[in-house]
């Protein structure tokens, strides 16, 4: 029994092997199959896409529990690695397919009986390798779609958090807007001047002054928050018109002198 036949038997001990002529081409085909199906770690039977599935699951958990923008970098790195692995998988598929065509006796210029006898075993070994590569390609394609879904999911979660933060900031802003005029009025009435402290009126004058000022500031702040862009645009247009009317009058004055 040749070394190629022995390697073929060891690659799949449960399979029924028919003894026949074998050459170095079959040995190369079997070695390629063994290399392609070998696990990444010696004590672990997981394939490369299994590791990426686990990492994607961990990212999914982090997105659900602690969504933050820095996870976008991890997702980007994962997608780049998947692109590289898919590219290598495609190159391997092309290499095996070209090697199969190279061994096919139909493409030989002269027919050879030995090639006709050895090619079926070589074709079977290479075909198993191509099938494994197709399975990996499908898994990597599914992983790529999952990574895209994770990216969209993270963006939606971050947008929801930012919306909640915006609401909290709005609440704090409104509280500040309410109490800032009150603080100003109380500080004004608390100044140690004769014309302020030596008054005969009670604290009602404070509330009569503070409440309208506070209400007015709140109304102005809310109005500017909702229509500030329009107000700014009107001011800019008014200034441009005023400058446009001022130029002809200045030119007429200069020409008259």
From TrEMBL:
SUPFAM superfamilies according to UniProt: Magnesium transport protein CorA, transmembrane region (SSF144083)
Keyword Membrane set for record: yes
Stretches that traverse the bilayer: 169-193, 205-225
MF terms (GO), sorted A to Z: cobalt ion binding; cobalt ion transmembrane transporter activity; magnesium ion binding; magnesium ion transmembrane transporter activity
InterPro entries per record: CorA_TM1_TM2, MgTranspt_CorA/ZnTranspt_ZntB
GO cellular component: plasma membrane
Localization annotation: Cell membrane
The protein's name: Metal ion transmembrane transporter
Organism: Didymella heteroderae
């Amino acid at each position: 029994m040749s070394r190629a036949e022995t390697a073929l038997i060891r690659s799949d001990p449960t399979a029924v092997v028919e003894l026949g002529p074998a050459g170095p081409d079959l040995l190369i085909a079997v070695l390629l199959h063994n290399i392609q199906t070998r696990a990444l770690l010696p004590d672990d039977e997981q394939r490369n896409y299994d590791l990426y599935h686990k990492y994607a699951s961990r990212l999914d958990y982090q997105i659900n529990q602690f969504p933050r923008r820095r996870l976008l970098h991890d997702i980007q790195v994962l997608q780049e690695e998947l692109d590289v692995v898919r590219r290598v998988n495609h190159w391997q598929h092309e290499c095996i397919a070209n090697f199969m065509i190279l061994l096919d006796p139909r493409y030989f210029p002269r027919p050879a009986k030995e090639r006709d006898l050895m090619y079926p075993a070589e074709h079977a070994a290479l075909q198993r390798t191509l099938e494994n590569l197709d399975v990996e390609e499908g898994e990597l394609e599914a992983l790529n779609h999952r990574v895209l879904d994770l990216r969209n999911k993270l963006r939606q979660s971050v947008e929801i958090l930012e919306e909640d933060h915006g609401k909290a900031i709005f609440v704090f802003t409104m509280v500040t807007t309410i109490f800032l005029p009150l603080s100003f009025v109380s500080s004004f009435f608390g100044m140690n001047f004769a014309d302020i402290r030596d008054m005969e009126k009670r604290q009602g004058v404070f509330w009569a002054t503070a409440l309208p000022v506070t209400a007015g500031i709140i109304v102005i702040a809310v109005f500017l928050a909702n229509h500030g862009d329009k107000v700014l645009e009107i001011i800019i247009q008014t200034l441009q018109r005023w400058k446009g009317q001022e130029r002809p009058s200045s030119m007429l004055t200069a020409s008259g002198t």
